[in-house]
């Protein structure tokens, strides 16, 4: 977002909100003050929104600035508790129409869909040996963060689809890249157990640098996400920008930039979560992607390398247009200009 605003000619002053003792050590670099007349608070409603200024060691301006909350969510309905946090701001921005629909149902203030833009950070191209992966095998990749709720990311469904699509003796690999498994030992053990009887599945539980994350993606042949719900779907966007064919559940935030022409969409049924999975309530709804359909699409890419390259090229072409920082910056700059015009008219 900051890069997009910079390309649109807008200056930003950045301040970080501290979370816990294991916070990113780079946060000390964000030492700006609330120097502008518009503040974007890029913090989720819970658990820190009510105390963002205190956690940023920042005194609030008086009279206060025009405040915009930038919120992500993985469902098309939001918790009731968010409504109270919305009273602290003048409007809400979010990345995709999927999230915006849920916000608009509950909030009386304006809700704008302003995609932040996606670009690939510089990375070093590395061969598979660097990641202890075998060469000469068609390699699928899925990356996810254990803290992002494993049930939502659905790697177990992906493992089932992979086992359905391929025999154990075929030269094909599924790489599941995760991190912070030590914080979720039960889920990590479940993941390892599901993959244990199939030699083509590799699990990496390690915190990678941004360079290594993108290098790993570059070293693989295709990207697969059988997510049950996504607010945005950043890794899918990055894979498309890299020219990788992407297989993904045809539901939620990723549908703002994915379609039948630029990717392979997995069919699904809409179901209730069914049990409380903090921070998600049991009555919320998400997708249950078809394992059978996903297996068919994975097999199709493996059997037809030319088709895989064609899908990757189409995805890259559309992503470069739809996800560009330049376009995102212009849209945000236009809305900020509207806000300033509105502020002047009220004086």
Overview of the structural elements:
With 347 residues, the chain is an alpha/beta fold. It is 35% helix and 16% strand. It has two domains: 2-117 and 324-346, Rossmann fold (3-Layer(aba) Sandwich), CATH 3.40.50; 128-322, Rossmann fold. The chain is globular. The relative contact order is 0.14. The mean pLDDT is 94.
List the helices and strands and how they pair.
Blueprint: H1 2-7, E1 38-41, H2 52-55, E2 66-70, H3 82-86, E3 91-94, H4 97-106, E4 111-113, E5 138-143, H5 150-153, H6 155-165, E6 172-178, H7 185-195, E7 201-205, H8 210-219, E8 222-225, H9 234-241, E9 246-249, E10 264-266, E11 268-272, E12 285-289, H10 291-303, H11 305-322, H12 325-346
Parallel strand pairs: 1-2, 2-3, 3-4, 5-6, 5-8, 6-7, 8-9, 9-10
Antiparallel strand pairs: 11-12
Helix pairs in contact: 6-7, 6-10, 9-11
Give the C-level CATH assignment of the largest domain. Alpha Beta
CATH superfamily of the largest domain: Glycogen Phosphorylase B
Low-confidence stretches: none
Give the domain tally: 2
């Amino acid at each position: 977002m900051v890069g997009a605003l910079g390309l649109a000619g807008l200056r930003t002053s950045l301040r970080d909100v501290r979370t816990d003792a294991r916070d990113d050590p780079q946060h000390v670099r964000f030492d700006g003050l609330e120097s502008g007349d518009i503040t974007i608070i890029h913090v989720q409603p819970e658990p820190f929104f009510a105390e963002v200024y205190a956690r940023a060691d920042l005194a609030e301006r008086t009279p206060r600035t025009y405040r915009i909350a930038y919120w992500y969510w993985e469902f098309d309905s939001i918790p009731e508790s968010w409504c109270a946090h919305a009273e602290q701001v003048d409007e809400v921005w979010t990345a995709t129409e999927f999230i915006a629909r849920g916000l608009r149902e509950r909030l009386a203030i304006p809700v704008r869909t302003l995609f932040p833009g996606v670009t690939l950070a510089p990375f070093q191209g590395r061969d598979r040996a660097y990641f202890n992966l075998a060469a000469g095998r068609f390699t699928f990749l899925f990356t996810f963060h254990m803290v992002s709720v494993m049930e939502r990311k659905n790697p177990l469904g992906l493992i089932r689809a992979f086992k359905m699509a391929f025999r154990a003796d075929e030269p094909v690999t599924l790489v599941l890249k995760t991190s912070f498994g030590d914080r979720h030992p039960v889920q990590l053990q479940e993941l390892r157990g599901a993959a244990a009887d199939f030699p083509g599945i590799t699990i990496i539980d390690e915190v990678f640098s941004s360079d290594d994350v993108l290098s790993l993606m570059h070293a693989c042949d295709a990207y697969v996400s059988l997510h049950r719900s996504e607010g945005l779907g950043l890794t899918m966007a990055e894979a498309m920008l890299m020219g990788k064919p992407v297989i993904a559940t045809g539901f939620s935030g990723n549908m703002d930039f994915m379609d039948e022409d630029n990717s392979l969409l997995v069919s699904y049924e809409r179901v209730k979560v069914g049990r409380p999975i903090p921070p998600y309530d049991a009555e919320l709804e998400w997708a249950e992607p078809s394992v059978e359909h996903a297996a068919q699409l994975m097999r199709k890419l493996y059997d037809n390398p030319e088709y895989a390259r064609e899908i990757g090229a189409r995805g890259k072409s559309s992503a470069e247009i739809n996800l560009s920082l330049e376009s995102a910056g212009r849209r945000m700059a236009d809305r900020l200009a509207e806000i300033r015009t509105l502020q002047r008219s009220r004086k």
